[in-house]
C-alpha cells in the first residue's frame, strides 16, 4: 500500500468513515464466519419451526378458545390496563435519550414515536420497529441520524439492562422449574442468575467510576451515561418486564406464582430473540406450555397467551398503525428545529 493510500485510509478512519477494502474486512467479519452464522441461524430456525408445527398439530384449539371465552370482564380490563401501563412506560424510554442527547423535541412527540415503534417492533421485529420507523419518524421531525442512533441505542440498552438485572434476580432467588428429565438443574439457573447480576452491576459500576466517559466503536462515539441515568435505566427496564409478567399472571390460573410467570416470560423472551421470529410467534407459546406444565393445563396456558397477544400485540398494532398514518401526515408540514450538535469531548 502506497504512502498516499495509507494517509487517505488514516484520514477516513479519523472521520469514522473507514471503508473496508476487501471482503474479509467487511463489517460483518470474514466470509467463513458470516457463512457459519447464516447456516447456524437457518438450522435453528428450521428446528424451531419443526417443533412448533408438531406441537400445534396436537393442540385442541376449540378447547383453547373455550377457555379464552371464560375470562371475566375484570380480568380482561385488568390485563388491558397493565398492557397500557407497560406501553406507556416503554414510550418514556426515549425521554432518557432526549435527556442524554439534549435534542429539542418535546416529550409528547418523543413518546408517540417510541410507542409506535415499540408496537411495530413487537409484531414485526426490531429492524422495522426499533430501527426503520424510529429513524424515519425522528428524521421527519428534524433529528440528525447521529442523534437518532444515540437515542435508539440508549433505549435498547434500557430494555435489556432491565432484563439482565431482573432475570439475574429471578433466576437466583426463584429459578423456573423444568419438566422431569431435563438436566438443567436449579443450581445452573442460579449460576446464570449470578452471572447476569454481575453483568448488570458491572455496567452500573462503569457508569459510576469510569474515568473514561467516551468509547469509540466502529467509527461511532459512545458516551457513557452517569450513574443516576444508569440507575433510572435499570428501574424503568425492569419495571416494564414486571408489567408484562403481570398481564400474563392475571390471565393464568391462580396456581401459577407471579415470580414463576416472570421467570418463564424472561426465558421465552430470550428464546424469541435467538429464534429471530417476528413477535416470537410460537416460541412464546412453546416455552410457556413446557415450563408451566406442572402448574396449569396446556389449554389454560394457551388461552392466556391468546388473550395476551390480543391486548399487548394486536390491538396496540391497530392503534399504532393509525397513529403512524397520522404522524406521517403531520410531519409533512411540521418540522422541529434540528438538534444541537453534541458537545465535544469524545
Provide keyphrases for this structure:
single chain; 346 residues; mainly alpha; two-stranded antiparallel ribbon; 13 helices; 2 strands; 2% strand; globular; disordered C terminus
Helices and strands in order, then pairings?
Elements: H1 3-14, H2 31-57, H3 61-69, H4 73-91, H5 93-101, H6 107-124, H7 127-140, H8 145-173, H9 186-209, E1 214-217, E2 220-223, H10 227-251, H11 258-275, H12 283-291, H13 298-331
Antiparallel strand pairs: 1-2
Helix pairs in contact: 3-13, 4-6, 4-10, 4-13, 5-6, 5-8, 6-7, 6-13, 7-8, 8-9, 8-10, 8-11, 10-11, 11-12, 12-13
Please state roughly what percent of the residues sit in beta strands, choosing from under 5%, 5-15%, 15-25%, 25-35%, 35-45% or over 45%. Answer: under 5%
Strands of the widest sheet, in order across it, are: 1-2
What summary fits the major beta sheet? 2 strands, antiparallel
Structural class label? mainly alpha
Low-confidence stretches: 12-28, 336-345
Q: Gyration radius, to the nearest Å?
A: 22 Å
DSSP, total strands: 2
H-E order? HHHHHHHHHEEHHHH
Helix content: over 70%
Total count of domains: 1
Mean pLDDT: 80
SS summary, helix count: 13
Query: Termini separation (Å)?
Result: 30 Å
The backbone outline, from C-alpha atoms, is globular
Amino acid at each position: 500500500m502506497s504512502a498516499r493510500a495509507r494517509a487517505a485510509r488514516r484520514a477516513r478512519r479519523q472521520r469514522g468513515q473507514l471503508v473496508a477494502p476487501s471482503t474479509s474486512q467487511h463489517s460483518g467479519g470474514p466470509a467463513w464466519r458470516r457463512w457459519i452464522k447464516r447456516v447456524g441461524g437457518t438450522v435453528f430456525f428450521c428446528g424451531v419451526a419443526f417443533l412448533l408445527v408438531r406441537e400445534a398439530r396436537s393442540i385442541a384449539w376449540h378447547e383453547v378458545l373455550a377457555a379464552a371465552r371464560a375470562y371475566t370482564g375484570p380480568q380482561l380490563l385488568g390485563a388491558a390496563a397493565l398492557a397500557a401501563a407497560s406501553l406507556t412506560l416503554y414510550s418514556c424510554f426515549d425521554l432518557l435519550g432526549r435527556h442524554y442527547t439534549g435534542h429539542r423535541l418535546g416529550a409528547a412527540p418523543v413518546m408517540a414515536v417510541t410507542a409506535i415503534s415499540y408496537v411495530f417492533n413487537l409484531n414485526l421485529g426490531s429492524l422495522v420497529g426499533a430501527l426503520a420507523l424510529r429513524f424515519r419518524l425522528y428524521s421527519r421531525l428534524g433529528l440528525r441520524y447521529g442523534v437518532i442512533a444515540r437515542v435508539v441505542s440508549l433505549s435498547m440498552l434500557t430494555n435489556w439492562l432491565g432484563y439482565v438485572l431482573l432475570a439475574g434476580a429471578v433466576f437466583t432467588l426463584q429459578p423456573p422449574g423444568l419438566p422431569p428429565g431435563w438436566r438443567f438443574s436449579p443450581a445452573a439457573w442460579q449460576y446464570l442468575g449470578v452471572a447476569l447480576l454481575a453483568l448488570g452491576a458491572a455496567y452500573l459500576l462503569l457508569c459510576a467510576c469510569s474515568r473514561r466517559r467516551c468509547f469509540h466503536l466502529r467509527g461511532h462515539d459512545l458516551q457513557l451515561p452517569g450513574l443516576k441515568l444508569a440507575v433510572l435505566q435499570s428501574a424503568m427496564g425492569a419495571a416494564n418486564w414486571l408489567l408484562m409478567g403481570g398481564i400474563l399472571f392475571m390471565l393464568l390460573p391462580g396456581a401459577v406464582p407471579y415470580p414463576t410467570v416472570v421467570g418463564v416470560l424472561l426465558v421465552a423472551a430470550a428464546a424469541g430473540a435467538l429464534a429471530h421470529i417476528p413477535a416470537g410467534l410460537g416460541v412464546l407459546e412453546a416455552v410457556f406450555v413446557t415450563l408451566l406444565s406442572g402448574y396449569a393445563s396446556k389449554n389454560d396456558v394457551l388461552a392466556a397467551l391468546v388473550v395476551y397477544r390480543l391486548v399487548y400485540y394486536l390491538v396496540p398494532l391497530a392503534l399504532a398503525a393509525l397513529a403512524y398514518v397520522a404522524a406521517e401526515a403531520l410531519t409533512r408540514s411540521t418540522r422541529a428545529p434540528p438538534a444541537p450538535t453534541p458537545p465535544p469531548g469524545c
